[in-house]
Specification:
heterodimer, A: alpha+beta, Gyrase A, domain 2, Alpha-Beta Plaits, Elongation Factor Tu (Ef-tu), domain 3, 3 domains, 6-stranded mixed sheet, B: alpha+beta, 7-stranded antiparallel sheet, 5 helices, 10 strands
Chain lengths: 386, 129
C-alpha cells in the first residue's frame, strides 16, 4: 500500500522547516505532524472526520501561526493599497475586514488575503497573508511603494494566530473573560487585552462556521491556546489539524492559494467576482483585464464546484471530461464528511457552457467517474444574528 | 470477529494475508488503518483477475489521501468483499475480520513463505520509526 495522492500539502521544497510557538503543544496533544508551506504543522490529533464534525457541531481550535501579518501605516496608506487590490478600501470602515486579492499587472492573483482597517484616523491597515506567499507579497508591496508615504511593517515572525471556529465559539470567547463589548461582530476586528495579553480579535475564519481569529505575540501564544482549550473543554472544544481544515474549507468552497488560486488565475476566473466592486474609481493592477472579463462574464475558464455521483473521491490535478473531451482540471478535491460524498473545485472551459446541474466526468486512475456541477458552497450555516 | 494474529502474514507495504486451506484472504494491516484514518472509498479488482506479486490490485481512499494496494503474492481473485465497497468504514473497525478486501486462489506458496509473520512485522515497524 502506498500513498500516491495527497490532499493539502505544501508543494514547494523549502530549505528549512519552521515551527510555530505552539509546536510543543501539538506534540503534547498527540498530533501527527506534517509539512505545510514550509512549516511543521499538525495534520490531525484524533480522526479527521471527528475533528471535522467537532467544528461543525461545537468548536475547534487551530494553530494558524504560520500565516503572515503585515501592517501598512502612513498618510498614504489608503491610496497606496487602493492600487494593489480590486476591493474599494475607501468604503471600508474602521474595524472592518474585507476579503480580496493582491493582483499582478495581468490581473492574476499574487495572493488572497484579508485586509482589516484599524482605528487610527483611517491610516492603518492589517493584511493577513498566506504563509507560502509572504516573500512574494512583500516583494510586491515594496516594489509598489514608490513615493507613497507608507510604512510596510512585516510582523509575521513576531505574531502568532489562533483560530477558534464553530457554533459554540462565541460562548467560549465570553468564558475566557472577553466582555460583550469586546467581542467583534462578523467580519470585524477589535484590539483588546485578553487576561493581560495584547491581542487583535477578528470574527473571521476558513471553515464556513462562525468563529474568531486571535493574533497575539509569539510569547503569549501558548498561554492563550491553553486558556482556550481549558475553558472550552466543557463546550466540547478540541484542537483541529490541517487535514480537517482542508475538508472544512472545501465544504465551504473557500479557495486555497497554490491550488485554486495562482498568479495565472484572475479573481473573475476564480469565481471571486463578488470581491470586485464595479464602481471603484481608482486604478489597480490588472483592472482593465479583470473588468473586461467581469463585464462580458466570459473568462476562458471558470472555477466551479462539483460533486461525485458515485462513491469515488476526486483529488487535486485530476482531469475533467464531458463527452470524452477534456474540459478542465480539478484544483481541490476530497471527501465531504457532511455530505458523505466526494466534492471538488475545478477550472472548466467556459466555451462548453457547463452550468449548475451539468453532468461531467472526472478521470480517476484511468476511469471516468460521473459527477455533477453544483452550487457552492457545498455546506453553509444560517447567518448568525449577532 | 476475533482473529488469531499468529495466522497473519504481512508485507512491508502494509498488506496482510491469512491462509485458510486453498484460499488467501487479503487486507491491510491495523498499522495501515491507523495511518490512513477514516476510510471512505475502496476500489477492488473483478473476480477472475490474475495478479502477479507486487501488482496493484486496488485503491483505498481515506479522507486525507488515496493509496494503492499491492498484492502480496501472485494468484487469482476468487472473491471481493462487496460489504467494504458499500461500507468502507469496515476496514477501520475490523481490518483483519469483516474489513478484508479480496480472496485469492492458485497462489504461489514460495512467495507466501517469504512474507513476515505478525511479530516480524511489528519489529519491522519499530525499526522504521
Amino acid at each position: 500500500m502506498e500513498q500516491f495522492s495527497k490532499g493539502q500539502e505544501g508543494r514547494e521544497e523549502q530549505e528549512m522547516i519552521k515551527r510555530t510557538p505552539l509546536y510543543n503543544e501539538h506534540l503534547r496533544l498527540g498530533a501527527k505532524m506534517f509539512e505545510f508551506a514550509g512549516w511543521e504543522m499538525p495534520l490531525q490529533y484524533s480522526s479527521v472526520k471527528e475533528e471535522h464534525f467537532t467544528v461543525r457541531e461545537k468548536a475547534g481550535l487551530f494553530d494558524v501561526s504560520h500565516m503572515g501579518q503585515v501592517f501598512i501605516t502612513g498618510s498614504d496608506a489608503l491610496k497606496y493599497l487602493q492600487n494593489l487590490v480590486p476591493q474599494d478600501l475607501s468604503k471600508l470602515e474602521e474595524g472592518k475586514a474585507v476579503y480580496t486579492a493582491l493582483t499582478n499587472d495581468n490581473g492574476g492573483i499574487i495572493d488572497d488575503l484579508i485586509i482589516y482597517r484599524l482605528p487610527d484616523n483611517g491610516c492603518k491597515f492589517l493584511l493577513i497573508i498566506n504563509a507560502a506567499r509572504i516573500e512574494n507579497d512583500l516583494n510586491r508591496l515594496l516594489s509598489q511603494k514608490g513615493s507613497y508615504d507608507v510604512v510596510i511593517d512585516n510582523k509575521s515572525n513576531e505574531l502568532s494566530m489562533i483560530a477558534l471556529q464553530g457554533p459554540l465559539s462565541s460562548e467560549i470567547i465570553s468564558d475566557i473573560g472577553i466582555s460583550d463589548d469586546n467581542i467583534p461582530k462578523r467580519f470585524r476586528i477589535k484590539e483588546i487585552t485578553i487576561n493581560g495579553m495584547d491581542a487583535f480579535i477578528a470574527r473571521t475564519g476558513y471553515t464556513g462556521e462562525d468563529g474568531f481569529e486571535i493574533i497575539v505575540k509569539n510569547e503569549d501564544a501558548e498561554r492563550l491556546w491553553q486558556d482556550l482549550l481549558n475553558k472550552g473543554e466543557k463546550y466540547g472544544l478540541k484542537p483541529v489539524g490541517y487535514a480537517a481544515r482542508d475538508t472544512l474549507r472545501l465544504e465551504a468552497a473557500l479557495p486555497l492559494y497554490g491550488q485554486d488560486l495562482t498568479e495565472e488565475t484572475t479573481p473573475v476566473e476564480a469565481s471571486l467576482s463578488w470581491t470586485i466592486p464595479k464602481e471603484k474609481q481608482e486604478s489597480y493592477a490588472g483592472k482593465d483585464i479583470i473588468l473586461a472579463q467581469f463585464s462580458n462574464n466570459m473568462p476562458k475558464r471558470k472555477l466551479v464546484g462539483f460533486k461525485m455521483l458515485d462513491k469515488s473521491v476526486p483529488r487535486h490535478d485530476y482531469e475533467v471530461f464531458t463527452d470524452n473531451e477534456k474540459v478542465g482540471r480539478v484544483t481541490s478535491g476530497g471527501f465531504s464528511p457532511c455530505g458523505n460524498v466526494g466534492i471538488g473545485l475545478a477550472y472548466i472551459d467556459t466555451t462548453k457552457h457547463l452550468s449548475e446541474g451539468a453532468k461531467i466526468n472526472i478521470m480517476i486512475r484511468g476511469k471516468l467517474h460521473p459527477a455533477k456541477i453544483v452550487k457552492t458552497p457545498f455546506y453553509s450555516v444560517k447567518k448568525s444574528n449577532k | 470477529m476475533t482473529i488469531d494474529l499468529s495466522e497473519v502474514l504481512c508485507t512491508k507495504s502494509h498488506e496482510y494475508v491469512i491462509k485458510k486451506g486453498d484460499i488467501l484472504t487479503v487486507g491491510i494491516t491495523d498499522f495501515a488503518v491507523e495511518q490512513l484514518g477514516d476510510i471512505v472509498f475502496v476500489e477492488l479488482p473483478e473476480i477472475g483477475t490474475v495478479l502477479k506479486q507486487g501488482e496493484v490490485f486496488g485503491t483505498i481512499e481515506s479522507v486525507k489521501a488515496a493509496s494503492e494496494l499491492y498484492i502480496p503474492v501472485s494468484g487469482k481473485v476468487v472473491e471481493v468483499n462487496e460489504k467494504v465497497i458499500e461500507s468502507p468504514e469496515l476496514v477501520n473497525t475490523d481490518c483483519f475480520g469483516d474489513g478484508w478486501l479480496i480472496k485469492v486462489s492458485d497462489f504461489s506458496n514460495k512467495e507466501l513463505a517469504e512474507m513476515m509473520n505478525y511479530d516480524e512485522y511489528k519489529d519491522f515497524l519499530e525499526k522504521e520509526e
